[in-house]
């Protein structure tokens, strides 16, 4: 009797495979989508002139004056350029032109991945330093002792910690666009959530989903609403009240959704969307956690945890008030690491080994960042991003106000996949889209809101954004994340639709 062949269980492709597939699709698109570019305007702070870059021609300069901006039909305050608020190239309205096709080949795939990784070196250095710091603190037993103490005090009120994390992450998102920086919170908060009886999905929901919802409804975020408003030629305070209302509604949806989900897995752990991966995930983050009572929570461990926790408000302060970026953030965490090493009581060899081990565990996460940037490079160098934007402008031109703003929401949703950078999409699209709003009688601040809400609805899913980095860090398959996040994308789009139509009706 012939033995039956046992079917191998299906495993959804990893983040690396998904990005490789998307890279191949992007390369294919450069052969199909016509190449084209807008002329771009930048400000040269050294010579104090505007520089115009036009494809295939030598750069030209123009005086850095309001008259130049008026001549180019760019409705942006001159001081936004001279004060360094807008640093990226601005697309010049009505300057789109078709250019010879720039198809990429299969040989460009590996090269783009390497160059994308090099370009992401600052983020990667930050992640490696963070991993090393976590490794040293784990070796001291401070996390283990702190978790034991926390689990005792939170008995019966576990969700309050999830609630507090959601609120803090949303505030970070709406004020300073805390997304890539949120990577720093996973190593410390994931063991906390696991010790409370939750799963990996709750971790990513409370950190990534909450911070992204906060960023979607940005109020004063300089990397999103401020730069988009400046590029649209308005002040960012226009439309801040509707965005604040949307923030409360959006974050409320996230918290209510997590409350429902955590209640479900508390009642039945097998309900967890990542139930079959729970043992591997638990080992990944809880391998150094010992049974209650085995580790004393002494003064040394308390000081180490205080130092670690202090790193995060310092990070937020640096980003918001000092203009820090990843090199400065990495340096601040490395400084904290030095103090932890001195206090740890560990031998020199243990310190070096634990730092190296902690950093090495985040190599996969760091590479995902580089590979995602490689995809964006292919689209930019294939000169198809501007073509897609130009096509989008023709789609929405001349529509009635309500239909126009809903079309804008849809356009920005799909542009979020092509240009996952909030500031990048703002300076590329706002000088083009904002004047279109004038022709149909829609205030420009409503277009800014449509840009934020449409793009971020996509960035909850877009593999070219931060999603795959997060999922790789938490070992969550992409399909499980899609199942979990789709209701929140629906909630965001529903809130956006109501808010946009209401604003248009009242304008």
From TrEMBL:
Keyword terms: Cell membrane, Membrane, Transmembrane, Transmembrane helix
One Pfam family cited in the UniProt record for this chain: DcuC
Membrane topology of this protein: Multi-pass membrane protein
Location in or out of the cell: Cell membrane
GO cellular component: plasma membrane
Listed transmembrane segments: 12-33, 123-147, 159-178, 184-209, 216-234, 240-258, 303-320, 326-346, 453-474, 481-501
Main localization, broad class: membrane
InterPro entries: C4_dicarb_anaerob_car-like, DASS-Related_Transporters
Stored PANTHER family: ARGININE REPRESSOR, BASIC AMINO ACID ANTIPORTER YFCC-RELATED
Protein name according to UniProt: C4-dicarboxylate anaerobic carrier
Organism field: Kingella oralis ATCC 51147
């Amino acid at each position: 009797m012939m033995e039956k062949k046992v079917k191998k269980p299906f495993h959804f492709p990893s983040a690396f495979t998904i990005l490789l597939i998307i890279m191949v699709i992007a390369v294919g698109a450069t052969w199909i989508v016509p190449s084209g570019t807008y002329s771009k305007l930048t400000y040269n702070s050294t010579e104090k002139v505007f520089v115009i870059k036009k494809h295939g021609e030598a750069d030209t300069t123009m005086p850095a004056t309001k008259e130049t901006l008026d001549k180019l039909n760019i409705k942006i305050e001159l001081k936004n350029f001279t004060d360094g608020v807008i640093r990226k190239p601005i697309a010049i309205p009505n300057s789109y032109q078709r250019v010879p096709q720039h198809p990429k080949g299969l040989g460009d795939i590996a090269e783009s991945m390497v160059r994308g990784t090099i370009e992401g070196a600052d983020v990667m250095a930050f992640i490696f330093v963070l991993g090393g710091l976590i490794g040293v603190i784990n070796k001291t037993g401070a996390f283990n002792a702190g978790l034991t103490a926390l689990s005792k005090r939170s008995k019966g009120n576990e969700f309050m910690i999830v609630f507090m994390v959601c609120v803090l992450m949303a505030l970070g998102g709406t004020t300073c666009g805390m997304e890539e920086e949120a990577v720093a919170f996973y190593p410390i908060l994931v063991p906390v959530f696991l010790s409370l009886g939750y799963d990996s999905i709750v971790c990513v929901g409370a950190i990534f989903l909450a911070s992204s919802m906060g960023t979607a409804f940005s109020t004063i975020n300089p990397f999103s609403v401020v730069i988009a408003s400046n590029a649209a030629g308005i002040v960012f305070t226009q439309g801040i009240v509707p965005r604040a209302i949307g923030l409360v509604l959006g974050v409320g949806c996230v918290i209510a959704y997590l409350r429902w989900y955590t209640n479900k897995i508390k009642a039945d752990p097998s309900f967890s969307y990542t139930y079959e991966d729970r043992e591997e995930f638990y080992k990944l983050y809880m391998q150094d956690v010992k049974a209650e009572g085995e580790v004393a929570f002494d003064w040394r461990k308390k000081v180490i945890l205080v130092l670690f926790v202090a790193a995060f408000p310092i990070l937020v302060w640096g980003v918001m008030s000092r203009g820090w970026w990843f090199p400065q953030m990495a340096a601040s965490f490395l400084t904290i690491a030095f103090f932890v090493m001195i206090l740890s009581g560990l031998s020199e060899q243990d310190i070096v080994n634990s730092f190296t081990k902690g950093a090495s565990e985040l190599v996969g996460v760091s590479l995902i960042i580089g590979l995602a940037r490689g995809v964006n490079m292919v689209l930019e160098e294939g000169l198809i991003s501007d073509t897609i934007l130009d096509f989008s402008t023709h789609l929405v031109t001349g529509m009635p106000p309500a239909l126009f703003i809903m079309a804008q929401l849809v356009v920005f949703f799909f542009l979020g996949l092509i240009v996952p950078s909030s500031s990048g999409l703002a300076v590329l699209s706002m000088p083009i889209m904002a004047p279109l709003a004038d022709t149909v009688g829609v205030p420009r601040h409503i277009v800014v809101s449509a840009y934020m809400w449409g793009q971020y609805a996509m960035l909850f899913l877009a593999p070219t954004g931060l999603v795959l980095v997060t999922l790789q860090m938490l070992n969550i398959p992409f399909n499980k994340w899609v199942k979990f996040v789709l209701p929140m994308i629906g909630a965001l789009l529903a809130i956006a639709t109501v808010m946009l139509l209401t604003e248009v009706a009242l304008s």
